[in-house]
Design brief:
two-stranded parallel ribbon, 484 residues, alpha/beta, 15-stranded mixed beta sheet
Length: 484
């Protein structure tokens, strides 16, 4: 009996679909977490066509070959500058745990810990931008600016005016901004027009432009935030270069503003931050800033710290390894602030294990949501955390608690651009600042105390009584967090 055309097509589609699934079983799990592999396989198996297209677009974390080759060559070049940074005498100034953390970070991220730094934490949004503006106005040689989201608005315009003044007096002003991160914000076109008309040398990070052959996974982003002036003073933290409502009318109508934490730095850590900027600058432009890396910033205080760059160009998810290492080492207290707490299995076990062995563990998160999928994925972990003894504090809406930091006992303070989520560990370029002395921890404790004062504690009984529909949505969107 002769098969109809429809029958032949149906059989062919069935065979192709079966072959795709068989191939996916052997390809998708390669060098991938089991949870991530399972999530992608579920998508490919149960959403035919769409799941496969999603995997082809979003399932690969590798960047293009040219970028990787440039990154490898740059790493060798940068090591020569890193060797000039003063090492910290671990055995005399810090604990064995901190020394092990420093060794791990340097092995994976290349940058050593350095002593002699002065750190000032700034939790006031406007004051942070004002401090950066003042630093730029004192620039004599160069200004290096890098932010995930950049916009020129009523709050940041004085900063851009300072950049223009610096360029006019002969200072080399270089600016990097994430292409998609900034392009999606209102005022993008006026910003581009202003930058093109200025004396600022600016470039987009990880640009996507198919007409120019710039094609890559769209959600691989450079999420770093930093400013370096003359190799003398630097800033880094969670804050983007934009007003706190992100120039969006719906945020302004709701009174929704982002809450951030930045660090102002003097000392050798400034040089380490400059190395990170120079690395990203070279990757995008092919220009290595040799003269700007030649000198090491002098000692300015007594704080020991370490810069931890992470991302697709750095080995072995080094920020995740450092974070879990510190969680397991905690003896008395862990305080975590993360707008997007979506941990992988290793970090979840580290946090809950610490709580179950008697460590006081607290987690500060936003009560409201600014990203639907991540918000619900995060909520799916609350039950396990609460049952383990983790105290969860909800920062009151409409504010968005966007600060990213944690402290361990009275020994370590960590802050920067990295969230406690799988995206920050595997997909984004991030930067973290680890501080190993008492004063920065004390400063961070004051910030945590201010959060606790105005936040509401979420109790297990309340959480278990939430609507079943909400619990279902949380659990479904938990799967999307593993699609990486």
């Amino acid at each position: 009996m002769r098969m109809t055309v429809a029958g032949v097509m149906g059989t062919s589609i069935y065979i192709i679909d079966l072959l795709v699934k068989i191939i996916a079983l052997g390809v998708v799990p390669k060098n991938r977490r089991p949870s991530s592999a399972m999530a992608w396989l579920l998508a490919i198996f149960f959403i035919p066509g769409i799941g496969l297209i999603g995997y082809l677009l979003l399932g690969q974390t590798r960047l293009d070959r040219r970028r990787h080759e440039r990154q490898r060559a740059l790493n060798e070049e940068v090591l020569s500058y890193v060797r000039g940074l003063p090492r910290t005498p671990h055995q005399k100034t810090i604990s064995e745990v901190d020394a092990a953390t420093i060794e791990l970070n340097e092995r994976l991220g290349s940058l050593p810990a350095t002593a002699g730094n002065l750190i000032d934490l700034i939790d006031d949004y406007a004051a942070s931008i004002e401090a950066m503006t003042a630093a730029v106005d004192e620039a004599e040689t160069y200004v290096h600016v890098q932010f995930y989201i950049t916009a020129c608005d009523h709050m940041t315009e004085p900063f851009f005016d300072a950049l223009d003044r610096a360029a006019a007096r002969g200072v080399s002003v270089r600016l990097l901004l994430d292409h998609l991160g900034s392009r999606g914000i209102p005022l993008w076109r006026p910003l581009v027009k202003r930058l093109n008309a200025s004396g600022i040398d600016w470039h987009p990070l990880l640009p996507i432009d198919p007409l120019r052959g710039q094609i890559r996974r769209p959600d691989l982003r450079n999420h770093r935030k930093l400013l370096v002036v003359d190799g003398r003073v630097a800033f880094t933290g969670s804050q983007n270069l934009i007003e706190p409502g992100y120039n969006k009318p719906k945020n302004h109508r709701a009174g929704r503003e982002w809450v951030e934490l930045n660090a102002r730095i003097e000392g050798p850590l400034v040089t380490a931050l400059n190395v990170v900027f120079a690395s990203d600058w070279d990757t995008e432009t092919g220009e290595l800033l040799r003269s700007e890396l030649a000198a090491t910033a002098p000692r300015a205080g007594d704080v020991t710290g370490q810069i931890v760059p992470s991302g697709p160009g750095v080995d072995a998810e080094n920020n995740l390894r450092a974070f879990t290492h510190l969680m397991y080492a905690a003896k008395k207290r862990i305080s975590i602030t993360s707008p997007y707490f979506v941990p992988d299995e290793s970090l979840l076990y580290a946090v809950t294990t610490a709580a179950r062995r008697g460590v006081e563990v607290e987690l500060f998160v936003s009560e409201g949501k600014d990203q639907f999928m991540v918000y619900h994925a995060q909520r799916s972990y609350y039950e396990a955390l609460l049952k383990a003894g983790v105290r969860i504090y909800l920062y009151p809406k409409p504010a968005v608690l966007h600060s990213k930091h944690f402290s361990i006992d009275d020994e370590v303070a960590v802050l920067g651009s990295s969230n406690m989520d799988m995206r920050s560990f595997a997909l984004n370029y991030e930067i973290s600042l680890m501080l190993f002395d008492g004063e920065p921890v004390a400063q961070l404790r004051k910030v945590e105390d201010s959060y606790r004062t105005i936040s509401r504690e979420l109790l297990l009984e309340e959480w278990l009584a939430r609507p079943k529909v909400a619990a279902y949505v949380d659990n479904v969107l938990r799967l999307t967090a593993a699609l990486q």
